[in-house]
Design the sequence.
């Protein structure tokens, strides 16, 4: 069953009757994608009332990115269930500039027990690009905002916290829990990273990470693309009914009773993780910053909106290679190296085709 089936089965139980579990934590993590502006403001409001007001402000069929649509659907499911309807939502923060986007919300699911949910990225290439930013920069602006959120609202609170998020939000949950002050950190009982990137090598080996590690859990689907980025520990691989970038959507994650069905990392994700870590280790932060800038430029020119297109549409590989002609040789080859890692992870036949395409256009790799 999926998370909606889970809500059908467990929605009749309160959190006192059946304690919070990893499926609830995924649902709360994904809920932060919903737009709560003008709904959750200065005081606590029940999830039931939030759901009703949200439906009034956001019409059905409204065009939104995938994660926002899914979160809206979840909210609609949750608002009338015994399990979720009396949860209180509060401390909603949303900030968006040309340089960063940050959002977080607190969900009190039992008295003095709060889930702090950090929003992730909700676009495909742009989201992957933002996740790639984590590969050369620490702390980022959103890291700082996430840390400030815990310090501001929970330094002097006596509430017990679970901190989590999906995609970039999972990384924010981890970093905020590592780096917040000791008073806020003492309230944290568990930290969930739902298919979000891990840490740079330096932070992965740090005392701050080791300190939070006993409370930390990362959940990724077997065909993960985002969650395998950077260095991680305490990883639980679960089964998804989708592959590639679609497996990033928690709606496809398979549930067994009150937990996710365990699985093994696919050969694609293993190869991609190995290749990306090697790529990061052989390039300087300045080089990686250039790669991200050029990746965005080339993808726009080639009409590539998500990495899964390389897996399903061979012509997108050709379009990407052609679009690279606008770059100098050094920049072009750094992008080819990155694309080569992605294509190689897709299998031998796709990789052979890629090498032939590059030779055809008389380009170096």
Sequence:
């Amino acid at each position: 069953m999926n998370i909606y089936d889970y809500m059908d089965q467990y929605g009749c139980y309160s959190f006192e009757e059946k304690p919070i579990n990893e499926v609830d934590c995924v649902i709360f993590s994904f809920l932060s994608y919903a737009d709560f502006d003008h709904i959750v403001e200065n005081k606590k409001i029940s999830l039931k009332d939030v759901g009703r007001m949200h439906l009034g402000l956001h019409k059905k069929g409204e065009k939104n990115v995938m994660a926002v649509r899914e979160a809206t659907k979840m909210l609609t499911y949750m608002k009338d269930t015994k399990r979720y309807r009396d949860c209180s939502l509060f401390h909603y923060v949303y900030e968006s500039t040309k340089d960063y986007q940050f959002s977080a919300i607190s969900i009190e699911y039992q008295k003095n027990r709060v889930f702090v949910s950090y929003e992730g990225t909700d676009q495909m290439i742009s989201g992957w690009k933002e996740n790639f930013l984590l590969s050369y920069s620490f702390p980022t602006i959103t890291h700082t905002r996430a840390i400030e959120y815990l310090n501001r609202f929970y330094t002097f609170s006596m509430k017990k916290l679970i901190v989590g998020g999906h995609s970039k939000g999972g990384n924010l949950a981890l970093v905020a829990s590592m780096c917040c002050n000791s008073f806020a950190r003492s309230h944290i009982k568990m930290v969930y990273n739902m298919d979000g990137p891990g840490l740079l090598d330096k932070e992965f080996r740090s005392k701050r990470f080791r300190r939070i590690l006993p409370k930390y859990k990362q959940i990724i689907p077997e065909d993960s693309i985002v969650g395998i980025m950077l260095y991680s520990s305490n990883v639980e691989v679960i089964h998804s009914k989708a592959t590639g970038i679609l497996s990033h959507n928690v709606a496809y994650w398979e549930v067994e009773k009150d937990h996710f069905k365990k699985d093994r990392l696919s050969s694609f994700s293993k190869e991609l993780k190995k290749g990306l870590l090697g790529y990061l280790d052989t390039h300087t932060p300045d080089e990686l910053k250039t790669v991200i800038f050029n990746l965005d430029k080339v993808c726009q020119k080639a009409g590539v909106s998500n990495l899964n297109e390389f897996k399903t549409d061979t012509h997108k590989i050709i379009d990407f290679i052609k679009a690279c002609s606008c770059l100098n040789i050094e920049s072009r080859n750094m992008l080819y190296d990155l694309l080569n890692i992605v294509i190689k992870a897709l299998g031998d036949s796709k990789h052979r085709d890629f090498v032939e395409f590059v030779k055809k256009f008389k380009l170096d790799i």
About this structure: Strands lie at 45-46, 88-96, 101-110, 113-118, 160-166, 188-194, 216-221, 235-238, 255-256, 259-260. The chain has a mean pLDDT of 87.
